[in-house]
Amino acid sequence: MMETTGNVVKEKSFLFAVRIVNVARYLRQHHKEYVLTKQLIRSGTSIGANIEEALAGQSRKDFIAKMAIALKETRETAFWLRLLIATGYLNETRKAERTLQDDCKHLTKLLTSIVKTSQEN
């Protein structure tokens, strides 16, 4: 079960990171925005990196700690996305931005479930 869940969250977080990198490229090229973009790219790509570390964790405690960090990074990424939309750098009505927010919410739910289930077992 954990292997299947691990593979799903690992793949989703990687694809999300790719989208974050592409959005960052867009923000830099079209809006010359660097400060918020740097924050977005750090948190958005850190999700997958922490999941990778969790899946290679040496103990259950290590696994839970890394997954919890990945969860915190998803929440931070959601904040930066909301801020970029609120300040007009991104447009929530465009499908790409809307689906990016949806993917972030989905990762948050998935990671919340993984952390809670892991803590209970």
Compile the SSE list and pairings:
Blueprint: H1 2-31, H2 35-55, H3 60-86, H4 95-120
Helix pairs in contact: 1-2, 1-4, 2-3, 3-4
Main sheet overview: none
Average predicted confidence as pLDDT: 93
Structural class given helices, strands, pairing? Answer: mainly alpha
The CATH superfamily appears as 23S rRNA-intervening sequence
Which range best describes the helical content: under 10%, 10-25%, 25-40%, 40-55%, 55-70% or over 70%? over 70%
Q: What is the total tally of β strands?
A: 0
> Mind telling me the CATH class?
Mainly Alpha
Shape summary: elongated
> In the residues, how many domains can be counted?
1
Beta-strand level of the residues, as a percent range?
under 5%
**N/C terminus separation:** 13 Å
What series of H and E elements makes up the topology?
HHHH
Q: Helix count, per DSSP?
A: 4
Low-confidence stretches: none
Taking all Cα atoms into account, the compactness measure Rg is 15 Å
